[in-house]
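User: Please predict the structure of the protein below. I'd like the answer in structure-token form so I can feed it into my own downstream comparison script.

Assistant: Understood. Taking the following sequence of 162 residues as input:
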Amino acid sequence: MKSVAAVIVCWAACAVQAQSTERRNWFEDPFFRVSAGIAECPVPLGPLITQEEQRREAHYRVERGTSCWLAGKCKDSNAYRYDKLLASPVEAALKSVPDVGGSSVWVTIQRRWVFLEGCVASREQAAQFEAAARRVPDVESVVPALGLRGESPRYPLLAPAR
């Protein structure tokens, strides 16, 4: 009987550990790939966070979301509500960049900020991606983390599958 109890305790501890390290897009932030032309480009972590990180982030997101409205920069009382509406126009703008197929670029959108992560063919192309995203109405800021093929990534990576 003691061995059964020990197995149950061990199973519960393992379940809690797995839950605490599982990464998900808890806030359903838009996260998508625009291009896939550089096969060796590492996949970014994007908005995937653990449940503990989600708990810590929740209050901060409420403050950041409403500060835009309080400052008179947003019509909506929560800047995060723009994100899903921005996904399609941002994707279309980025896909219009010349030689988009010669890059591997992922996008995360949070509170009207567009995060560009991945690999590009040239510094000029990186600047074109950034400029294209900035031209989309309601985008407040663009945060580029685009590197050239073979450079170390400038963004957190998605852990490789085991």
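That's the full token string. Confidence is low (pLDDT under 50) at residues 4-18.
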